[in-house]
Amino acid sequence: MGISSSGDAPARKRCWVESANNPETDFPLENLPFGLYEDDRQRRHTCVAIGDLVLDLPGCNTAGLLNASQAIGLGPRGLGHVELWRAGQIRHRAAELLSDPALRAQVEPHLIAQKDVRMLPPFGVGGIGDYTDFYASIHHATNVGRLFRPDTPLLPNYKWVPIGYHGRASSLIVSGTEVKRPCGQTKSPDAAAPTFGPTQMLDYELEVGFFVAHGNELGQPVPLTEAEEHIFGLCLVNDWSARDIQAWEYQPLGPFLGKSFATTISPWVVTLDALEPFRIPAATRAEGDPEPLPYLSDERDREQGGFDVNLEVWLATAKMRASGEGPVRVSRGNLKDLYWTLGQMLAHHTSNGCNLRPGDLLATGTVSGATPDSVGSLLERTKRGAEPLVLPNGEQRKFLEDGDEVILRGWCAREGYARVGFGECRGVVAPARD
Ligand code: MN
Fold first, then answer.
1. How far is the CA of 133 from the centre of ligand 1 (A)?
2. pTM, rounded to two decimals
């Protein structure tokens, strides 16, 4: 493990799936992220992505291409029953199957075009256990805090505690599912009483999620040194947020109905193994910031607990789609800007003895950078609507309108290494119910 400065890139194996050798693909042989799809007879298949295809793993098993150990857990319920070490074996075997020309004729029947399969949440519908959302970007916390407290944007606990809240797992949906504009209580500052109706401040939040592989026993904290052994892999998360509902309800207990109506995840789980070449040191703390308490402090985590993942938000309005215009990029950030590492978040989550279970989803919170074009929400980008975003066709957005499609993308690039991408996390805003 660890990265020397340059010149140690491994020789790349060639994949006989041509689209996987395209330098622009998110899914080369080096990635092989896991997912779950449903076929036209409603049968579910755990799979890995390769180029613009998916490899059906139960199909490979039936054909005798996996060994008995690799096949354990590949049932219809998704990744919750696949242990992490087995997932490593499966990726290794899949790479063999997809690179050995002698195996091509046997493997090819188990490849399907990604455009022809319906992806499900990777841990199965209803199989994602609990969902926790953190607040790990100090830039996001500062930007949002500044809107409400210009002089003291960061609350005093921020640099000590990885702040989070318990989200709602039942409304986690997979990329491509439409998001109905939620209704709720809102109150404008000059109104005497709140009203109930569709949110007027619908927003996206650009986040990265990480799935728990094996969990921990109730009462048994996971030390930071072991935290990453509990992480199956990463996905993209859009934590849709109704800012007006949130503003009225959030005190004193935090986010509730302004968040729980929908959270979109990308269908592919990119493993930590695949992200190994893109590890970097955790973000350096500013001079004068406190050292993390001992349970949040570890040398290895400091040296390689960060990940260099480019993150983008793209927007396509209904008008843009109607006139054949492609989506426009409205933000570009990076996961390396987080104040807390994934390991610190997981260790903190369990530090009181709280048990995590396989398939639980933890998310980073909105990932924002230091510059205006790297913020992960419209709340920050438009200063809560005060400075509308102007799109190339002249349309303006303070917040999202019906018909708007939000597309999150994530990818890693490093000289000498294959690009490793996350695919897309998409959602179109549908009108509120009558
Ligand atoms: Mn969030």
1. 6
2. 0.96
Distance 20 CA to ligand 1 centre (A): 33
Active-site residue flag, 140: yes
Equal fold, 18-120 vs 131-430: no
Fold that domain 131-430 belongs to in CATH = Fumarylacetoacetate hydrolase; domain 2 (3.90.850)
Do 155 and 138 form a contact (C-beta atoms < 8 A)? Answer: no
**What pLDDT, in 10s, does the model give residues 330-355?**
999 999 989 999 999 999 999 999 99
DSSP class of 159: T
Class of domain 18-120: mainly beta
Which amino acid, one-letter code, is at 85? W
Q: For the stretch 35-57, what's the b/e string if a residue is b when 16 or more beta carbons lie within 10 angstroms of its beta carbon?
A: bbbeeeeeebbbbbbbbbbbbbb
Give the three-state DSSP class for 379: helix
Q: Per the structure block, which two tokens stand in for 340? A: 């807390």
Q: pLDDT by residue (tens digit) across 165-179?
A: 999 999 999 999 999
365 Cα: distance to centroid of ligand 1 (angstroms): 4
- Chain centre to alpha carbon of residue 390: 27
Ranges of each domain in the chain: 18-120, 131-430
Taking the centre of ligand 1 as the mean of its atom positions, its distance from the CA of residue 235, in whole angstroms, is 14
Burial of 352: CB neighbours in 10 Å, binned 0-12, 13-18, 19+: exposed
Q: Identify the helix (H) or strand (E) that includes residue 363.
A: strand 361-363
DSSP per-residue letters across 27-72: --TTT--EEEEE-TTS-EEEEEEETTEEEEHHHHHHTT-S-HHHHT
d(CA 79, CA 47): 10
Distance CA 215, CA 228 (A): 11
Distance of CA 86 to the CA centre of its chain: 22
Asked if 39 and 45 count as a contact pair (C-beta separation under 8 A), the reply is yes
Each residue's pLDDT tens digit, 238-267: 999 999 999 999 989 999 999 999 999 999
Q: What's the longest Cα–Cα distance across the chain? A: 74
Rounded to an integer, what distance in angstroms lies between the CA atom of residue 211 and that of residue 365? 14
Dihedral sign, CA of 6, 7, 8, 12? positive
| Marked catalytic residue, from 81, 110, 139, 140 | 140
